[in-house]
Amino acid sequence: MVGIRRCVDEDFETIWLIINEASQVYRGVIPLDRWKEPYMSKTELEHEIRDGVSFWGYEVDGKLAGVMGIQDLEEVSLIRHAYVRRANQNQGIGSKLLFHLHGQTAKPVLVGTWAAANWAIRFYERHGFKLVTRETKDRLLRKYWSIPERQVETSVVLADHKWNQKPW
User: Fold this and answer.
1) In terms of Cα–Cα distance, which of 145, 136, 1, 128 is closest to 69?
2) Which among 52, 156, 54, 42 has a CA at the least distance from the CA of 97?
3) Are 82 and 68 in contact (CB under 8 A)?
4) Buried b or exposed e, range 107-139, using 16+ CB within 10 angstroms
5) What is the residue range of 120's domain?
6) What is the 3-state secondary structure (H, E, C) of the chain?
7) Any idea what the Cα angle at residue 15 is, between residues 154 and 99, rounded to 5°?
8) pLDDT interval class at 74 (50, 70, 90)
9) Looking at residue 92, which CATH number applies to its domain?
């Protein structure tokens, strides 16, 4: 079976494993002071879920091959923690998850990622997202994300066409 489904409590360990396996691409790319092992602890993942990140997964042969979260906040939705197992990358899984989650909300959608992760930025740009200005990025990261100031400095935000049509 292949398809997208909402993740359930029993998927927690697999979500955590996928995030930490796929995030290895950031090692040596993001600032050294932002890298840690594991990239996301189980406590951090529990916190994200408690804060309203709803994870969806893409299954291949009954196993999760990729995960992506969406967080509904005030007047926007955030795409959070988008990762695909290394063995399943470049198969369109991230694109399918993004398309599915983007369709789950009528609100403008924002994505934050590392400024040095050129491949991630290109991925979102290929799907119609555009980088916001530095000033807007700083404001959005401080308003909608709970991240350290150092991460604000080293990140970017991309916005979908709905955001770009609003007079923010």
Assistant:
1) 145
2) 54
3) yes
4) bbbbbbbbbbbeebbebbeeeebeebeeeebbe
5) 2-165
6) CEEEEECCHHHHHHHHHHHHHHHHHHCCCCCHHHCCCCCCCHHHHHHHHHCCEEEEEEEECCEEEEEEEEEEECCEEEEEEEEECHHHCCCCHHHHHHHHHHCCCCCCEEEEEECCCHHHHHHHHHCCCEECCHHHHHHHHHHHCCCCHHHHHCEEEEECHHHHHCCC
7) 70
8) confident
9) 3.40.630.30
pLDDT of 7 higher than 70: yes
Strand order in the sheet with 130-131: 2-6, 53-60, 63-73, 76-84, 109-114, 155-159, 130-131
Average pLDDT over residues 133-158: 97
Structure-block tokens of residue 97: 């998850």
This prediction has a pTM of: 0.95
Number of domains in the chain: 1
Q: Which of 86, 79, 78 is nearest to 143 (CA)?
A: 78
